[in-house]
Amino acid sequence: MAMLTAKLSSPATNWITGGHSSAGARRSAPARRATLIRAAAGSYADELVSTAKSVASPGRGILAIDESNATCGKRLSSIGLDNTEANRQAYRQLLLTTAGLGEYISGAILFEETLYQSTTDGKKFVDCLKDQNIMPGIKVDKGLVPLPGSNNESWCQGLDGLASRCAEYYKQGARFAKWRTVVSIPCGPSALAVKEAAWGLARYAAIAQDNGLVPIVEPEILLDGDHEIETTLEVAEKVWSEVFFYLAQNNVLFEGILLKPSMVTPGAEHKQRATPEAIAKYTLTMLRRRVPPAVPGIMFLSGGQSEVEATLNLNAMNQAPNPWHVSFSYARALQNSVLKAWQGRPENVEGAQKALLVRAKANSLAQLGRYTGEGESDDAKKGMFQKGYTY
Ligand code: 13P
Fold first, then answer.
1. Residue 294 has what pLDDT?
2. Is-catalytic flag, 130?
């Protein structure tokens, strides 16, 4: 009991026993000490907790702009621009220098290139973010590859060298990280793919925490398929139970993580659409059954929903208090209007920044449960789902 009190009052020296307590009680004192293991968060525990709280602060969410160069190329080509470093920089500059963004956005997930880039005037993007009290984050996974022995499923690479990369990213100013793996319902999912996804996320989370970065844990359950919403619920419960099992086994500090789940919806090709109220009900049911209240924030991905749909669904989830901050970490559902307004023209930058603020504010209101959906354009209501979409 004395040990438990010490552990709770001092997360920075978070030591836990490796064995079962009754077995431990039978051992001699030196033998018991030999089985002590250190929690992943190590000396960063206090900082991780405060970083996660800052990202999960009321009325704010995450701007996800961590597209790899290849995926950023898809965004740029949608408005007829070449995928050059200068165009990627111009696009990220537009987003990250938007005045007033920090009121609605608490964190921005960057790709490695952007973390080390500056504006055309030479100001580091990381400093642009800090000036607005927005935490810089970094995508650390190395993408998906086929998983041999599975049902055409994939696994996520990036554990080799991850500790040293995280340490470097921390020095550059990053304070949280993202690792996205996927689970496909039409492919099964197989027990192997779910286990691999969960184990990879847990190893990554422990390594990120050990190097001062709050891990965003993202097992994206893809929208692809014609299944019922109940099927998504069943798969999501299975996936999150394995994720939390392995997070616990890896001694990850739950107070210092953030989750990035998919909302529980019917498959994108299902004959009937679900209402925001139904999506909120199923999604919150899944979260209440699987996510401990120690976790500070749930930051949903948009996954191909239209901008308005993603905002309405988030709003529906915030109609009553939740044990966690329930918010957004959208890429497509924040960027689509911006790209359309910008078209790669310098004279449109101001208009594009206004479009970003409109979306950011709408989602901020949805985080507070106060979004009405009034005055939205038809463009913002257009779905962005693409079958087999890859990041
Ligand atoms: P979407 O909101 O486009 O699904 O992006 C999610 C994501 O993981 C990007 O970080």
1. 98
2. no
